[in-house]
Amino acid sequence: MKRAFVFSLVIVLLASGVAATPQRKKRPPKAAAVKTATEKPSPFFDAERLAKLSERMKSFVDRGRAAGIVTLLAHRGKPVQSLAFGVQDLESKKPMAQDTIFQIASMTKPITCAGVMMLAEDGLLAISDPVEKFLPGFATLQIREKGDGEIEEIRKPARKITIRDLMTHTSGMSGGYPEGFTELFSKRDRTLAEAVEAFPMRYLDFEPGTKWSYSNMGIATLGRIIEIVSGKRYEEFLDERLFKPLGMNDSHFFVPEAKRDRIATIYRLDNDKLVKADVDLFRSEAKYAAPEAGLYSTAPDLFRFYQMMLNGGVLDGKRILSKLSIELMTANHTGDLKAGFSPGVGFGLGLAVVRNTEGTFRLNSIGTYGHGGLWKTYGWVDPKKELVGVILMQRLSSDGDLADEFNAFMTMAAAAMAEGKKD
């Protein structure tokens, strides 16, 4: 993510009470020895370079950049390297593990969009449908912008916003929430229906389809459309249609009490020191699933989701989406519009997509797609190299999708592919 976007999210969170809690400064513990879950050495990767990747990830924890890090790298559907360093909580010193549960924040967005595509394949909606077809209140949406002489003009948009606009962040809907709902993300004390009903109260920022602007409200609206069309709660629909079929057994919007001891603590990087952030880890009173940023998950679960996409919509013989839907989701829908939070990317349906050479700065291929999350989580698929990568931390900082940890992991993973071993 670009700094400006991350700062805006931080401001929203601070306004919602998600601020750092003063703690006595502690020296970070040395990261535990490398833990791997590699079944056997891969002939497609240079073992020495993989070892260097492990040491580099370990160094971030040793330096106090993160309490702990979990990574998973897979090639052609098989894990090549799975790592867990450090601890999931600095006070308890519980070791980080592959099954540690993370709040993955905006990595939820492509999962919500996958749910929309399932309903499209069921013939229950089309991504070209106007949003007001399902949510009549959106017919009242207006734009507020400055005209000649800096005079504000309030008017109807030139066209209706569509489901596709929401999925590509080109709807004109703001990234924040309306008045009265500014604490929605932190408190999650309203239902999805209550929140989305209020969204048309906020003016559009621009004409639909003319610009790209990251919109949490837009993705949340998709979640409500899933509820209306399917007749089920958003989280129930995804559990039945996505998580259970894929075996994503540790992916939840509301984590069962029995699993809460596996949730990693979120820290804030403050003057190069980790300070515990005032973020509700368990959200035991939450009503709002947050289709834009509310999922808890693990590295193995996320690997299964991304591998399904790399496979063209199928995993372990179970068809989740058609190959055509995956191709549509991972195409660049934003053309030459300035989009995303990394150089050289456009946006597909809920995913950033590398569209030119500028976007290959981490040795990834054109066509690579993925998404990050606020608390430093990231997942990507490189179809050309047949790679899936997941890196998970829990840190609030301003480096977004260009965090050193992400850059190092992706670059070193690609560089570790052994020359002459592509087939």
Topology summary:
Elements: H1 3-15, H2 47-62, E1 68-75, E2 78-86, E3 102-105, H3 108-121, E4 143-146, E5 152-155, H4 163-168, H5 184-187, H6 192-198, H7 216-230, H8 234-246, E6 267-270, E7 273-276, E8 295-297, H9 299-310, E9 314-315, E10 318-319, H10 323-329, E11 345-347, E12 352-354, E13 369-373, E14 377-382, E15 387-392, E16 395-396, H11 404-415
Parallel strand pairs: 6-16
Antiparallel strand pairs: 1-2, 1-15, 3-8, 4-5, 6-7, 9-10, 11-12, 12-13, 13-14, 14-15
- What's the main sheet like? 7 strands, antiparallel
Uncertain parts: 1-28
- Provide mean pLDDT, rounded: 91
The second-level CATH architecture is 3-Layer(aba) Sandwich
Tally of separate helices:
11
Quickly count the domains: 1
Write down how many β-strands occur, each being a DSSP E stretch of 2 or more residues.
16
The first-level CATH class name: Alpha Beta
Q: What is the CATH superfamily classification? A: DD-peptidase/beta-lactamase superfamily
Find the CATH topology: Beta-lactamase
Run of helices and strands: HHEEEHEEHHHHHEEEHEEHEEEEEEH
Rounded radius of gyration (Å): 21 Å
Q: End-to-end distance, in Å?
A: 34 Å
Structural class based on helices, strands and sheet pairing: alpha+beta
